[in-house]
Amino acid sequence: MDMQTWMIAFQNAVLTAFGERIVCIGLQGSRGRGEATETSDIDVVVIFDRLSPADLRLYDCAVSALLHRALLCGFVAGREEIERWDDADLFSFWFDTTPVYGNLDFLRPRITAGAAARAVRIGACNLYHGCAHNMLHEKSPALLASLLKAAVFTVQAKHYCETGAYVRRHTALVEAVSGADRQIVQAALAVRAGYTPDFDEISGLLFTWSGGLIRNAKVRVKVRSGKAEKAKKSGRGF
User: Fold this and answer.
1) Residues 99-121: tens digit of each pLDDT
2) How far is CA 35 from each of CA 38, 121, 168, 217, rounded to the nearest angstrom?
3) CA-to-CA distance for 166 and 161, rounded, in angstroms?
4) 42 dihedral zone (left: phi>0; alpha: psi -120 to 50; beta)
5) How many CB atoms lie within 10 A of CB 192?
């Protein structure tokens, strides 16, 4: 698939339907990183001035005739909603999106070291819970693959906290990190290539790694008027 040609067709279809109401069109995921296979999803971002159920139906109709429509997925939102999105999600969203029409400059002030640290903490909490649930109940290799995919975003945020550099391509990230971080990215790349990892080994790796991130997150306790208030530090600490 020629992604440049496909994105032009996609952009034309969306702009024909919505015109100046479109704030930004972008590409994410493996297609955006240049690491896709033939069957990889096409993760597009479309930010509207505002978004209603009627707009979603019109959007679906506008893209229905595109080649490879079955591969199309991604993120759509109104501008006001994305402006108020959680910083942890915005951190990965910003770095993983390549705009092809318009821009996301209005989000740039939100992409901070504090947002990166929050992305690490929330990512670690979700992974910890997900691993425990899967090891006890689901015991699903497919769910483990999803957890590995999510863990790579946490590794990226962690590396950013430690170095100030965001490594977008996963094949480059595996060379930029070490220890358990590298093992996790390696496992994620192997799954993408079709390899089935050892369920107990990789689940245990993810569970132990995410638990360590949670325990090592720096938390200050302030005492005011006899009440303890937890104040989470937003700087580096992982």
Assistant:
1) 999 999 999 999 999 999 999 99
2) 10, 27, 11, 32
3) 9
4) beta
5) 18
Tens digits of residue pLDDT in 47-98 = 999 999 999 999 999 999 999 999 999 999 999 999 999 999 999 999 999 9
In this structure, which topology does domain 3-110 adopt according to CATH?
Beta Polymerase; domain 2 (3.30.460)
Using 50, 70 and 90 to split pLDDT, how confident is the model at 1?
A: confident
